[in-house]
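Entry 12.
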Amino acid sequence: MPSIEFHVHTKAGSADSSVSADALAEYAAREGLGAIVVAEHFRIWADWERESFFERTGTRLYRAMEATTDTGHVIVVGPPAGYSPPRSATELLTRARKEGWFSILAHPFRHYFDNIHPSQRPHFAAGQTSVELATHPIFELLDAVEVENGASTDRENALASAVAQHLDLPVTSGSDAHSATELGRCLLSVNEIPRDEDALAALVRTWRIGRLPTTTE
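Predicted 3D structure (tokens):
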């Protein structure tokens, strides 16, 4: 059964990643991955880059990026190469819905339970229950929530799962790999690899808590 690596960063578009495009290609070819969502922080891979990667590895890539907004990190699947996202999550998600792009709130509760500087905390009031957190207006604009993130703690992921389940939102799982050793931490096994971004979105819309085809290594 083919697998999707759903949240990866490389040096080709994320300053905090040590994964080269060549290393990612070698990994994809070695593992026989069906697809990868390369969600860079600063750019979207061009069509020719994705096509070249497919020709080299047989692994499909999708147009995607992870935007830093005033309400957290949002993975957007579908924007064209060269798109520059706004800082406002509301503006970004409103545009995404208008254009038919698919949006995912990435690692929503990373550091939520930590006693750290407010600038490093997620943009949700501290000490709330999952039901209270679910009333935040951002969830009305999102298409899905990342509930299993390879770089987040079990407690953080569990809170994301509880919020998504309360809202009956689609869910995803991603390695959030920034180094070669982190590749493959969370893989999604699917019956068929989506042919494009629209097909990928349609597939994710069927995933819920308890119905997420996750394989974790």
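Annotation: The helical segments are 21-31, 47-57, 89-99, 130-133, 154-167, 197-204. The domain at 3-216 is CATH 3.20.20.140 (TIM Barrel).
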